[in-house]
Amino acid sequence: MTAIELSSYAGLTAMTLLTFNILIGLLMSVKYNPVRRWPHRRINTFKIHNWTAYIALAVAVIHPVLILFSSTAKFTLIDIIYPVNAPKQPWINVLGALALYSLAFVVVTSYFRGELGRKRWKALHFTAYGTAALFYFHGILTDPNLKDQPIDFLDGEKVYVELCLLVVIVAMVLRWRWQLRQPPPRVHRPKSRPSRRLRTSSLGRL
Which of 12, 18, 36 is closest to 171 using CA atoms? Predict the structure, then answer.
């Protein structure tokens, strides 16, 4: 097995973990309870969500590093970090680099969510959807053999990436429909107190 093939499998593994991570996150956002519903087990979805992100980042870093060991790709470390002038598919690899940096941003900001505050962290965390989009488009548009060959959208690896993208889109639509069905939040209005003049006149009558 060549270094390019190993790199391709690492990319698919990172994409699988990221897809699973997003699905877990969407379940958490709708307050899904694994004890009351399937699989009727006490599962810490928060830890699963975190660890799939950590492992996805580690595997995503391994994905381009493996290309450095290929004798045919001729990529340098600069081409991996800043692939604008990469010898093969520079702009498609730019998408991959942006996806990797975006994933690192999401993971790091999540680690410091206590310091950032829930509201600010939640706004930053939404970049995970953009990260996933970059990963999917990079996976669909790139030539896994790095030979600039025409894209075969019906290739097994491409179909797998396309299915991951479709699953996430369907899950996001279902999440959006769930949100529309939720009742509007109740506005808490403090009870009005009688004015001082009214209280004084009532005491005078007594």
Answer: 18
